Amino acid sequence: MSATSNIIRDYENFIPLAGQKNKPNSNPNKPNLRKAKMNVNLTLTKGYRKKDDFLVRINKPNFQNAKNERKLNFNKGLQKKRLFSTPKNKPNSNPISSKAKIACRKIRPHPPFKVSCFSLDPNIKELIVIFYKAVITKNSLKKIIIQKGTRMSGKKQSKTRISNRISRRSMLQIAAGTGAAGAAALGLGSCAAIGKSAKQRVTEGRINQSIVYWCFQEHWDIERICQVARHLGCKSVELVEPKHWPTLRKYNLVCAILGSHGFEKGMNNPEYHDMCIKELRASIDVCSAYGFPNVITFTGFRESIPDDVGITNCVNGYKKIIRYAESKKVNLCLEILNSRVAIEMQGHPGYQGDHTDYCMEIIKKVGSPRMKLLFDIYHVQVMDGDIISRIRQYKDYIGHYHTAGNPGRCEIDDKQEINYKPIMEEIVRTGYTGYVGQEFIPTGNPFKGLKEAVILCDV
């Protein structure tokens, strides 16, 4: 459920407290009870375990201050020997009628709402809120006042009154009709709509999305990246060291895949088998303890090892550990990496498992349902292409996906060549239930790029 749904739901529950329309006989000169303020805090709640990302806390208006103010003005009126002045538009009304006195004693507030927004992204310049058919835009880092049925701006506020009764269905229809300007994106920097879309987070949920930590760790610490993941609707932050897993658990996230040995020294060389098996066993144990599904593994660099010999060595090495992985119900995911791009972390010249068919031959010869392929879409595009056909061909062997734009392992926007929407749709059609990790290197605003990627992959 989105932050929009949260705030609509809580506001609907609050409607009975919002007061009724002024009665015709109420005294127009009584103290303005609309000054009674109600605080609505839109903040990420620590330890919040429910499916919703944000908890809207509504505090009661300060009725006592309003009541004291009314009493003070009432006493001042007595000293001036008049209780109330006659309204200009109602010359026949009785200012000292019993009904007017009773109405004066009643507390029927129409309070504005003081809203504060918690934002991660300092580049966001506006806060967009929809409430009772009103669209309000203000600086997200300042406290703003939102009055029911009015639009806060530099211009004079509209005095048109709007019915207190509005259904959630009507609210959602209003939100959809306002387009990008009416996106009720509250909190964590998603306050401004992106482009022409009002979509701010995962809504379909047919792709389980994950964030690869190493790509963003120079921008965010583990606590903040978990907040971003929860806000965008991602279910995992992956390749995170186990020491940070309690933080993942705090935000109800998983680590979709865990590291083990490196990609330079792998199973293709028997000299490294003992080291690789030790690292794999340790990662399998900790994933099994936490209930996390996958451990990553690599063929290693060639080091003058022929390709056919590399396959044989890998198969022999993985057969020494795969039964243990089966007993712990953890997958080993062999990743394909490109060997063409000679730029750090964009390519790995010398890596032996640099083609999809090569890695698949190893996986098939190991012959275990726990031996899987990590299908990195960026690396496959660089080395093999024909991505959708390969997904269809090897769908039963794929245990994890990674994304990135090509060329440059950049954001997956419209400035790169891979068309991710039909790829994600094909992944859904294959019945895949694992995770898709966003593994691009941000070239601009990391939050903006990540949000666009998450929304694009939510098909």
Reconstruct the topology from this structure.
Elements: H1 3-14, E1 38-43, E2 55-58, H2 63-79, H3 98-105, E3 113-117, E4 127-131, E5 134-138, E6 144-146, H4 168-177, E7 208-212, H5 222-232, E8 236-238, H6 245-250, E9 257-258, H7 273-290, E10 294-297, H8 307-319, H9 322-328, E11 331-335, H10 356-366, E12 371-376, H11 377-383, H12 387-394, E13 398-403, H13 420-429, E14 435-438, H14 446-457
Helix pairs in contact: 8-10, 12-13
CATH superfamily of the largest domain: Divalent-metal-dependent TIM barrel enzymes
Termini separation (Å)?
17 Å
The number of distinct β-strands equals 14
How do the SSEs run, as a string of H and E? HEEHHEEEEHEHEHEHEHHEHEHHEHEH
Please report which band the strand proportion falls in: under 5%, 5-15%, 15-25%, 25-35%, 35-45% or over 45%.
5-15%
**Major beta-sheet overview:** 8 strands, parallel
**Structural class, from secondary structure content?**
alpha/beta
Number of domains: 2
CATH architecture of the largest domain: Alpha-Beta Barrel
Q: Give me the CATH fold name of the largest domain.
A: TIM Barrel
CATH top-level class of the largest domain: Alpha Beta
Fraction of residues in H or I helices:
25-40%
- General shape: globular
Number of helices: 14
Q: What is the radius of gyration? A: 30 Å
Strand order within the widest beta sheet = 8-7-14-13-12-11-10-9
List unreliable stretches of 5+ residues: 1-26, 30-63, 80-90, 92-166, 174-197
The residue-averaged pLDDT reads 73
